[in-house]
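Why should sequence recovery work at all? Because a backbone constrains its sequence more than one might expect. Tight turns favour small or flexible residues, buried strands favour hydrophobic ones, and helices have their own preferences. The token representation captures these environments compactly. In the example below, the structure is given first.
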């Protein structure tokens, strides 16, 4: 009596004659007597609902299906379900065994980011879970992705200027042997834009779009966005105004009536400093200086 397969079916991507296929592998229950396998391929059509795309009966411990861009497209989550039965007694079936869902397409890792306005760079990995085919004979074994950012702001506000900056506007996914869940990968760094404005936490998204793909499979495909939450940090302010009254970052107040060029502010951690120039503006009546110039790096 057949109860279940020895191993859960596993889906792996492969290039077959230059076209992207998915392979479902499963182990035979026992070598004798001969066993047949019924393999049902399906895709997630909506949350919790599957749509059948292919079915076959085979004596082989594997089954292939092509990512043809019609029945199976990039962006689909694909399953294979395998049932074993003895040749000649198809009514004696094993329990169907499901593979884990295989997401075919572009993935961002991590799938979402939470960063702060502190100038730190955060690495975002872009990978393809399917092999990159080579439609031509030249060095076209790559997919170029155009990256863009959009500030979604808050629900009560209109979108503003970008809240995140990327280290590159395009990345190339170069064909390489599939390893783990990646068949091609590239990295880009994401940094929050320090806007010196107390605008609260804001949400942006990073999008990717294939650029002029020659492979039909990639033409109508738009990968999922990455949500980036930017945590607002308080901004420090210092002032020098009129006949210079000075207020420091930590709130100290004093006056400076000297004439000349002075260093107002310098950062210990980055190339940032501000110089001010003060001139005599009191005449003969009083020794008073006024701001007349500023230089910032």
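From this structural description, the recovered sequence reads:
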């Amino acid at each position: 009596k057949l109860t279940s397969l020895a191993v859960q079916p596993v889906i792996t991507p492969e290039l077959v004659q230059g076209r992207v296929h998915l392979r479902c592998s499963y182990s035979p229950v026992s070598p004798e007597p001969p066993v047949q396998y019924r393999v049902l391929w399906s895709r997630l059509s909506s949350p919790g609902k599957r749509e059948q795309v292919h079915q076959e009966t085979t004596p082989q411990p594997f089954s292939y299906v092509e990512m043809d861009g019609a029945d199976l497209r990039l962006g689909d989550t694909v399953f294979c379900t395998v049932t074993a039965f003895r040749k000649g007694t198809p009514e004696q079936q094993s329990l169907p065994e499901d593979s884990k869902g295989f997401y075919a397409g572009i993935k961002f890792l991590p799938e979402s980011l939470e960063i702060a306005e502190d100038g730190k760079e955060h690495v975002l990995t872009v990978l393809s879970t399917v092999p990159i085919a080579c439609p031509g004979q030249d060095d076209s074994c790559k997919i170029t992705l155009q990256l863009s950012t959009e500030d979604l702001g808050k629900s009560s506000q209109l979108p503003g200027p970008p809240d995140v900056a990327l280290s590159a506007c395009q990345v190339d996914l170069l064909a390489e042997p599939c390893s783990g869940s990646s068949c091609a990968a590239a990295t880009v760094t994401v940094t929050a834009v320090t806007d010196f404005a107390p605008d609260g936490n804001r949400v942006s998204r990073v999008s990717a779009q294939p650029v002029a793909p020659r492979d039909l499979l990639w033409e109508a495909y738009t990968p999922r966005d990455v949500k980036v939450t930017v945590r607002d940090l308080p901004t420090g302010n210092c002032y020098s105004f009129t006949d210079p009254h000075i207020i420091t970052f930590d709130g100290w107040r004093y006056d400076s009536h000297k004439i000349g060029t002075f260093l107002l502010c310098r950062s210990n951690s980055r190339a940032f400093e501000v110089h001010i120039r003060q001139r005599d503006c009191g005449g003969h009546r009083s020794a008073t200086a006024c701001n007349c110039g500023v230089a910032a790096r």
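A few observations help interpret the result. The CA atoms of residues 103 and 280 lie 71 Å apart.
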